[in-house]
């Protein structure tokens, strides 16, 4: 059993497991890579140590967390991930580990009588003060992403989201080169002065980013990460496979495991069950379930194989497989997204005009 699963099996409530996973799961992006503004894993480990007694209490009575999640009714996994993180910040403030924080702070620009939104900061927090860091603020941008390696797709973007319209490198660049730089704007400094009462010229801002998630390699074994991708990605997150309705079964060729379908909002939850569940399926039964699903939908579906641990007396997740439509990513859908993305880029004339202005 992995060290991570040893930690997660302590929590019988799946939403508490997802909360803990959101905090302590490894970064999708390699710490030693080109992005120096990654949130330090040691900070997450320290927070987990501080909040462990609270997590244990919450696991016995998860009503506080469940009521909190009721405020975030959305099928978007990113919104659920942000909800878990804001819940963590709330607890840190209650335990006086933070002086203050703000979440989802919109930054407005004013020109003459017009107002526009420059963007939104996920989180800005101020740790418990000392004489040395009384003016220090941390600007934190977060994301959770799942990407499938499609070898030689378009020749440039090979790590694609399950819906076929999201690419890893575009997301990484957007978070670190656009979202994190928003805190450099004068309008941001003014907004933070209003909230934290620190003069804008005294603010010491530390921008940090977190991207968590999972990388799925082809279940057929065809294709592997190239040198650039291996440098960019944390190898601890390259731990799942994907296949089509026609070949996913290669993940369980002996057909000895039990399988479960993981609902979208449960993708963050390590799958652990105390006993046989009515949603457990053999490989043959799962094949029928998947066939029925793709008869009516093109939506990718995430499944997990479980094995029984005699020592722990628990059914534990052993592997995940993302099953996609046999034509994934559909050419029309992906091409439309590419065209839209290309149109959003400024032309050379627009760049020249912007520079002159």
Largest sheet: 10 strands, mixed
> How many structural domains in the coordinates?
1
| Rg, alpha carbons | 22 Å
The end-to-end span amounts to 60 Å
Defining key terms:
single chain; 357 residues; alpha/beta; 10-stranded mixed sheet; 10 strands
Q: How would you characterize this protein structure?
A:
The protein has 357 residues and is α/β, with parallel strands linked by helices. It has one domain (3-356). 36% of the residues lie in helices and 26% in strands. Strands 1, 2, 3, 4, 5, 6, 7, 8, 9 and 10 form a 10-stranded mixed sheet that branches. α8 links the parallel β5 (204-218) and β6. It is globular, with a radius of gyration of 22 Å. The chain starts with a helix and ends with a helix.
In a few lines, what is going on in this structure?
This protein is 36% helix and 26% strand. Strands 1, 2, 3, 4, 5, 6, 7, 8, 9 and 10 form a ten-stranded mixed sheet that branches. It is globular.
List the helices and strands and how they pair.
Blueprint: H1 3-8, H2 14-24, H3 41-60, H4 63-69, H5 77-94, E1 98-111, E2 114-127, E3 136-149, E4 159-160, H6 168-179, H7 186-196, E5 204-218, H8 227-232, E6 238-244, E7 258-262, E8 272-273, H9 283-296, E9 301-309, E10 314-324, H10 331-344, H11 348-356
Parallel strand pairs: 3-5, 5-6, 6-10
Antiparallel strand pairs: 1-2, 2-3, 3-4, 7-9, 8-10, 9-10
